[in-house]
Design brief:
The chain has one domain (33-151). Helix 2 (35-49) packs across helix 5. Strands 1-2 form a two-stranded antiparallel sheet. The N and C termini lie far apart (44 Å). It has helices at 2-19, 35-49, 57-72, 84-88, 113-125, 142-151; strands at 22-24, 29-31. With 154 residues, the protein is mainly alpha-helical. It is globular and about 55 Å long. Strand 1 and strand 2 form a beta hairpin. It binds zinc ion. Zinc ion (ZN) is lined by residues 40, 44, 105, 116, 119. Zinc ion (ZN) binds next to helix 2 and helix 5.
């Protein structure tokens, strides 16, 4: 009976997994179903390969700086196609995390935080460094991230 419960749980888990966009570092696998989502997942991979940029204090300070300037409107990223509100009030940074469980996005206990912020900025950039707020650009190599996206067929 225990084995059956485990099997059911595992199958449920797989079915969730199949519908998602994700990057699984342990098996170096990205699944994504659109260019935007691939830029998100490719950024997770790049972040990981570069030794977790999103976990550094430099990144976290830069994000805080961006969020505070964007909040008060003092940002050069005003004219870019950015969903600024999403980034100012970002789960796990500017507001509570969405209570969901996804072991594949580096955020047990809810989606959000600095690692997801890193990937989401890449997602919104559409591959163009000019669409990234100026003070965050140095944390991205859009050529490298773009190569990963190309390799995924987008
Ligand atoms: Zn993510």
């Amino acid at each position: 009976m225990k084995k059956l419960n485990f099997l059911i749980a595992f199958l449920f888990f797989l079915s969730q997994y199949a519908e998602s966009n994700f990057y699984a570092p342990a098996i170096n696998l990205i699944m994504c179903d659109s260019r935007e989502n691939c830029y998100h997942e490719a950024a997770h991979k790049y972040d990981h390969l570069m030794g977790d940029i999103s976990k550094t204090q430099e990144w976290q300070q830069a994000v805080e700086e961006y969020r505070s300037t964007a909040f008060y409107g003092y940002t050069d990223a005003k004219d870019v196609p950015f969903e600024k509100v999403d980034l100012v009030f970002f789960p796990g940074i500017g507001r509570e995390k969405i209570p969901d469980f996804n072991p594949f996005n580096n955020s047990f206990g809810g989606w959000g935080n600095y690692t997801e912020f890193y990937a989401t900025v890449s997602e919104y950039s559409n591959g163009d460094i000019n669409n990234i707020p100026e003070n965050l650009r140095k944390f991205y190599d859009m050529n490298e991230i773009g190569k990963i996206v190309k390799g995924l067929g987008y």
